[in-house]
Amino acid sequence: MDVIPNEEEQMVKNLAREFLEAECPPSLARNMEKDEKGYPPELWQKMAGLGWLGMSLPEQYGGQSLPLTYLGLIIEEVGRTIAPVPLLSTVVPSLTIAQDGTSEQRQQLLPRISRGDLIMTWAMQEQDPRLLPETVHLEARAQGDGYLLSGTKMFVDNFVVAEKCLVAARTAPASEQSQGISLFLVDTGSPGISATALTTLAKDKQSKVTFDQVSVPASNLIGELDQGWPVVQRMLDLATALICAQMVGATRKDAEMAIEYAKNRVAFGRPIGAFQSIQHMCADMILWVDGGQLLTYEALWRMDQGLPASVEVSQAKAFCNDKCVAAVRTSQIIHGGMGFMMEFDLHLWYRRVTAWSLRLGTTFEHRAKVSRALLDQPGKVRLGMTMAAVP
Amino acid sequence: MNFAYTPEQESLREEVRQFIADNITPEMLQEMEESGIRRRGPQVDELYKKVSQKGWIGMSWPKEYGGQDGSRIDQYIVEEEFARVGVTVGGAGSGAPAILAAGTEEQKKYFLPGLIKGEIIFALGFTEPQAGADLAGLQCRAVRDGDEYVINGQKMFTTAAHYGTHIYLMARTDPDAPRHRGISIFLVPIDTEGITVRPLWTIQNEPTAPLGTTYGERRTNEVFFENVRIPASCLLGEENMGWYVGAMGLNLDRVGASRYLISVKRDEDIVNWIKENDLDGYSPAEDPAVRDRLAELWIEAQVCRLMTMRSMSLVEHGGNFTYEGAAEKVWAPEHGVRTTETIAQILGPYAQLLNGSEDAIEDGIYAHNLMGAFQSGINHGSAQVMRDQVARRGLGMPRG
Prior knowledge:
The complex is a heterodimer. By secondary structure, chain A is α+β, with helices and mostly antiparallel strands. Chain A has helices at about 5-25, 25-30, 40-50, 70-80, 85-100, 105-115, 230-265, 275-305, 310-335, 345-355, 365-375; strands at about 120-125, 140-145, 145-155, 165-170, 180-185, 195-200, 205-215, 220, 265, 270. In chain A, β2 and β3 form a beta hairpin. In chain A, α8 packs antiparallel against α9 (about 310-335). The longest helix of chain A has about 35 residues, at about 230-265. Chain B has 3 domains: about 5-90, Orthogonal Bundle (Butyryl-Coa Dehydrogenase, subunit A, domain 1); about 120-240, Butyryl-CoA Dehydrogenase, subunit A, domain 2; about 255-395, Butyryl-CoA Dehydrogenase, subunit A, domain 3 (Up-down Bundle), CATH 1.20.140. Chain B has 12 helices and 8 strands. Chain B starts with 6 loop residues before the first helix and ends in a 6-residue tail after the last helix. Chain B is of the alpha+beta class. In chain B, strands 1-4-5-8 form a 4-stranded mixed sheet. A 4-stranded antiparallel sheet of chain B has the order 2-3-7-6, with no helix packed on it. The mean pLDDT of chain B is about 90.
């Protein structure tokens, strides 16, 4: 038991911070909000060069086989500098393919991802804002040696720059045997696909994607037919843990800006940071971020160990949704009017953290998952024990 | 990072649990609870002797002073298991770390083994009627007179004074120095002539709070010092350096299992209760509002656990924490209050019923907790003082 990052982990984090602080000034995030692609390809190549894209992919596919906690530490720093890169949307499907793909799929895709040659994304959510199997209606109908996909996906990250997308589709009605969901690898340029850009709070690249009889070969099925839900769940858990890391990184930086501002801004004849009302707001911000960070690290660490982590992931996301948003809002309040001036950088962080709190599961959904684990299975609970997730 | 205990630590936990099952009886807990009005009884003394023979107190202290040279995490595991049944072991308060850091060889050899065996119990003598949160304003005087000090003054909320053997006393030795630099610490035998201990009864008294389950004590004390003469060898650390010796000890005392556990045990209790019980057909476990709130609290409890783990990890790394102990001391007590108040709203009017009342749920612990939960956020450094520390020590914010 030692919850402090060890020397090597700290080094990974420091190097990532050093690189990102040099490469990603706030002006980059600001410029990319108006950019068509939303990311600078040179930066993406540099990240590939540093081995970040294949951080936790197996070495045989050009990866580094490093623990997910390392990837989490890097994404935390990406969040800190709000680096505009399609990292999360690429590494999550890459790890899903590494775990659940066929060896052919791995061979084809993973080395390209590690090299920075292939940007990916995934599409799960539809009209219903919740992440549940029954919300998946996009249909994949068997035809010949493949499937025809029809339906609409919402909130697909970086679809505009992704070459391939993992799509959760319905291949059967839910039954005793399965949720009837299958996961497909789809070329984003396939005939029948049309994407509409969504205008979002974070001014990031999300799309509403419509599939009209999009043809996908059977060899593009990830995992087994109708048995895709557990695969999607693992993918969502991983994505959720990593977005928590990103939120924690961004929120800590945001809080640090408020602390710095409070030390320098003079009112009533002294720095406002000398007032206890402001000090206590700052203390709370840091405590909230610390809490989110510890929960996130524990969830990632459990995944690395191959331990059940679904409940821990939900704990982290529910807490981060609540407390990271509280922290960035507090930071806005401390900054007063300047904080919401377009020319001032603070809102870049605020808009992202609040937006990320709405992705990959709301506070209510994740608490519902925790309460099911707590209340809907027999036996006494004990803090610190592992709780199985209840579907 | 590593969030798991070692197999050795897991088996230590099992051993402690078994020991508790074998040795702690309801009669013993009753006796312990009654220490609010009388000294610790024979059963409790016997228990502490056995625990100390097991080597479970002062585990992380050096062997030469009766410890095990062991890990603070091991000690934490022992503390946590005992805290679940309402028994405090292991920590020995803030006195022991201060003695380890600042004591003379003689003091270490005398006090540390005594604390381990339970033969020495410290009562914390810091707070005064006019010096609570602003501790450095304390007025109790200690004046050097040859080989002795003469103490005059009053201490408040000296909780263990009616069963402890020594007062771990903070007193002013130089009234002309800046206020943090004129304070010293003394280890004063409580039976010294001139010391008077008077009970202060808390709102937790009458009816007796149920066994080992509540926050807060039934009894605390005020202690009067009237020309109390003690040998100069009672001084801990250098004269006038007591503020720093004391603060370091307090810092370490704020972290650990008992404070966190008393706060989170309520989460376990209510979850386990509503899983198996209903209120005339109303099942809180199926009420969506209750479910959402309990999950929120459970997640907060995890944060309390992890913040405690962080402090323990930092102690293990050499104890260099700036604000993390204070962070834990903000979170755990405030969480305890939120849980207690939420439970009360789940049970509604039943949460009014005190121990011994007809129809009281779980011996009325929830009503007793409404009187006790907030106390944890006040004693040993209030949450507000702790936030000051986070801001000033942790974040380097300026003084007002």
